[in-house]
Amino acid sequence: MAFAAVARTSKKDSNAGQGLLLGRYKLGKLLGHGAFAKVYQARNVKSGESVAIKVLDKEKILKGGMIAHIKREIAILRRVRHPNIVQLFEVMATKSKIYFVMEYVHGGELFNKVSKGRLKESVARKYFQQLISAVNFCHARGVYHRDLKPENLLLDDNGDLKVSDFGLSAVSDQIRQDGLFHTFCGTPAYVAPEILGRKGYDAAKVDIWSCGVILFVLMAGYLPFNDQNLMAMYKKIYRGEFRCPRWFSSELVRLLTKLLDTHPETRITIPEIMENRWFRKGFKHIKFYIEDDKFCSVEEADDDSGSYTTDHSSMSESETEIETRNRFCSLPRPASLNAFDIISFSPGFNLSGLFEEGGEGSRFVSGASVSRIISKFEEIAKVVCFTVRKKVCRLSLEGCREGVKGPLTIAAEIFELTPSLVVVEIKKKGGDRGEFEEFYNRELKPGLENLMMEKSLSTATDDSFVPTDSEL
């Protein structure tokens, strides 16, 4: 994800709907507006891609004391990148405006579809499955939406659901010493009873309650708790007074009863929802990874570990060698390093921070072949059940365990130093720093140590100017 700050722009460019915005986006129709922002449809003039641009007024944000709120929203959107969540592409700024460049979802709000009448059970189930997948992804990263409702659920061209509007969302860092949130927020008809009690609440359980209300609305076409008098409606919510229509199946009724349990301690959890019989019908767990800032789905041919697309278990040793050789016979030659690249490797002259995002990592020199290096990475990944993806002379290793900052993701790239020497650069691209350091020291470094010396004594003339295993 790219982030840019532009110090100056012409008044014409800063006005919505006039010319190009910062020379990159052609603004179109107004999609909506609020107290602090307006949202426009726009087109990237270079790629032709349609986007939605949220334009925020800096003066209003400053007066409203919303700076911390905006920063938190940006941080949250960077953390929750999922196929069922509206994506933030980049953030730009001028002296008077802030621009969120976001994914444009053509299908509009799910609310518009529900307002025409209740949905078929299979359609409602599909949307609910996608909603739970997105919410589960957020919760695993310590993000809680707190304002889930059909108006904040959008539909794309394929009819898939996208969660939007994280303006009221919170992160685990905001939890008080009692382990609870205390901010009163949400939309009245979808708010959980514990929020009404104003005694603190578990934000994950609050999102689950809202998901239950949404499921009821999708299946019934109306709200489970509704009254023209707001206080009367709050009383119904607090007591959990609702009735399911006769067309609800017994399985659905049992699930809704667990979702709309007024006691958060006994309310169903997301793992339990995913094991529910009604929920599991036709459910397909989304497997994806991000490459070049775009979502890529994992092929079903991948095995359970995700490390290989070829099954080696039934192959003999000679067949494996032939298969391995064939895989790399057409491997492109690594990119050559120029003088600037080599100088930048020295800690005293490292200028890479000017051009690329910083992060944990290391570099080492090896005389081993490119295929040997890639095979070694795959061996290590197989031992720890990491997924390996290859593109030319770049590799991505992704762990299967979810964390607050997502799964551990490591990128490795191979560069040619001389015809007989290569430099391997390793960087942490996602996940927790402590987890990266533990994995690097326990698995990666010991596994790659032999490669650092392989053939280098006989082929290298003088590699003393390049630091081995130098931490960035």
UniProtKB/TrEMBL annotation:
Belongs to the protein kinase superfamily. CAMK Ser/Thr protein kinase family. SNF1 subfamily. Residues 25-279 form the Protein kinase domain. The chain crosses the membrane at residues 206-225. It is an enzyme of class 2 (transferase). This is non-specific serine/threonine protein kinase. Its cofactor is Mn(2+). Keywords: ATP-binding, Kinase, Membrane, Nucleotide-binding, Serine/threonine-protein kinase, Transferase, Transmembrane, Transmembrane helix. It catalyses: L-seryl-[protein] + ATP = O-phospho-L-seryl-[protein] + ADP + H(+); L-threonyl-[protein] + ATP = O-phospho-L-threonyl-[protein] + ADP + H(+). SUPFAM superfamilies: Protein kinase-like (PK-like). It comes from the Eukaryota. The keyword Nuclease does not apply. Pfam families: NAF, Pkinase. Signal peptide: none annotated. Residues 332-356 form the NAF domain. Its EC number is 2.7.11.1. ATP binds at residue 54. It comes from Hibiscus sabdariffa.
